[in-house]
Structure prediction request, 409 residues.
Amino acid sequence: MRPLLVRLHRWMGVATALFLFVAGLTGALIAWDHELDAALNPTFFYARTAGPALPSLEIARRIEAADPRFDVTYLPLGVEPGRTLQMMVLPRTDPKTGQPYALGFNQLAIDPATGDVQGRREWGAFSFARINLIPFIYKLHYTLHLPFMGSFDTGTWLMGIVGIVWLFDSVIALVLSFPSVKAWRKSFAFRFGRGGYALTFDLHRSGGVWIWGVLAIVALTSVSMNLSDPVVRPVLSTVSTLQPTPFENPELMRKGAPGQTPLTAERVVQMAQAAGREKGLASPPGALYYVPSFNGYGVGFFAPGHDHGDAGLGNAWLYYNANTGKLAGGSIPGTGSAGDIFMQAQFPLHSGRILGIGGRILMSFTGVAVAVLSATGLMIWLKKLGARRRSAAAAAARSGVTRESAAQS
Prediction:
């Protein structure tokens, strides 16, 4: 059995090493994406004008009126003092061509005191420019910037499959790390004095053993986040009842009565605010998310600047049909079935935010460790591959000498 596990670990490790090396280093950085982005792009994050902020919904109306080529799709409802209001936009359809307008941007930074646009960028663009660098790294982490093939998200699927292989390989690696009961202490040791191959081997084996639990969580959550709908939720639903996601709920797309006026964004926020009080949510409505294709709204509950969630299971969200005004689903941390709570925990666990600042530090360290484990694994494989080739060449040479001697005799 052990020789088979060794082969599986070898080939699973080689197949995923480069992907995990990239994911590890990028993950170490994006644990601090907002802080790094603000340091690199202060004019995109810090408002030029001091003073009270205009209402976010009023700013959004002004922006859409000034440039009718797009809809505001994500809008913070509050802003931290001194910070810009950062909204996401989606192009509308050009009636002349039937195609979406070519905007060249999908995110705006607005001076909240004046409503003026301070900056534009294409979040997630393949670009090393300073304004795009952190979003580029963030998207690289989970898609490698691979293109869609039709409607198939190649990068997200690939990294999800890498996560599945990594999860299975982690179990195999743990088994291989403890070859016998008597030698268990060696699996935790680092031979710093030896250096060279011995230390490389210990960094790979013992390093993985020390943080195995964290690595397994990161691997599992990477699968859950990349392949949630096609893989994880269907599997999880066999053992636990799951609330449908808003986009699985037909109520989100239900059309209103003939002549019925769609709800305004202000009305949706008022409804969500009242619903939040009824459900005992401590935080106010913090952001409005609009999905034009569904004509639906999502309202998140958090204080300004805390859209990622500070600790625990993250922020609550409620979703509304813009035609009928009916609640079409929601996610309130800590509520629902065991499966619902499991799904709520995936991003907080993967990002480390479930433990606050300490968790983010842990994830940065883990990201570097994943890169080291991947690199040392490749180094060990290459060294053993070279040894096997030299051994095979020597055996072939001996065989040739033997045949030549036999021929001469």
The first strand starts at residue 70 and ends at 76. The chain has a mean pLDDT of 93. The chain has three domains: 1-49+128-235+362-396, 53-113, 244-335. The radius of gyration is 27 Å.
